[in-house]
Amino acid sequence: MAGRIKSCYHEGVPWNKGTKWAAYNAVTEYVDHCRQYGGENADDVRLKNTWFGRGAAIKQRAWNYLIK
User: Fold this and answer.
1) What are the C-alpha distances in Å from 37 to residues 19, 44, 64?
2) Based on the number of CB atoms within 10 Å of its own CB, is 56 exposed (0-12), middle (13-18) or buried (19 or more)?
3) Is the pTM of this model over 0.85?
4) Is residue 4 part of a domain?
5) Angle of CA points 8, 31, 38, to nearest 5°
6) Which residues constitute the domain of residue 47?
7) Residue 49, domain member (yes or no)
8) Which of 1, 14, 19, 20 is least enclosed by beta carbons within 10 angstroms?
């Protein structure tokens, strides 16, 4: 997970490289688009996770860190 988030951070858009916002965007990109979900209803599981589950909690922790 951490390695993929670092990749998202370093490969992000040029105008915000090196900022806290870029770090937050890397976390949200990973949670929303890069995490793997298996099974027949993978898209439903992804949606529930990113809005309400562990993914939402990860994004909230990143946001709380960002605004400190």
Assistant:
1) 29, 9, 26
2) middle
3) no
4) no
5) 115
6) 16-25+40-68
7) yes
8) 14
